[in-house]
Design goal:
It is built from 3 helices and 7 strands. Strand 6 and strand 7 form a beta hairpin. This is SRPBCC family protein.
Length: 136
Amino acid sequence: MPEYRRTTTIDADPAELFQFLSKVENLPKYFTGVTEAHPATGDEVHVVAQPQPGEEGPPEKVEADATFSVDAERKALSWGSEGPHDYHGELQVTPHGDGAQVEVTLHTQHDDDRINDGMDDTLQHVRELVAEGRAG
């Protein structure tokens, strides 16, 4: 299963940034492709995603139940789904100078360069939300 990893540094308080990122309802605000996210029971969430268009045109939207775990002590999120859309990942926020470093890792059955683009877009969305004061 291929692994994808992206990291960025953001001028934000790590604790406040993690608090924003760890709320399920905020996922569509920063995760590229996620259009809806709703808590279910325990660590379960229901997500709706619109994957990025490929050479064949726009893909169908995907609805799935997934896991979403928050480790507040490590400032880490983990998520995943089994079945036809098998994937799992982690997002971790760590202090970096006067700001925060955000690292996203994704393991998926897909091997596609667009995944790197989507992860870069996700981190860019986080930077923009912080700059606009909407991630706190």
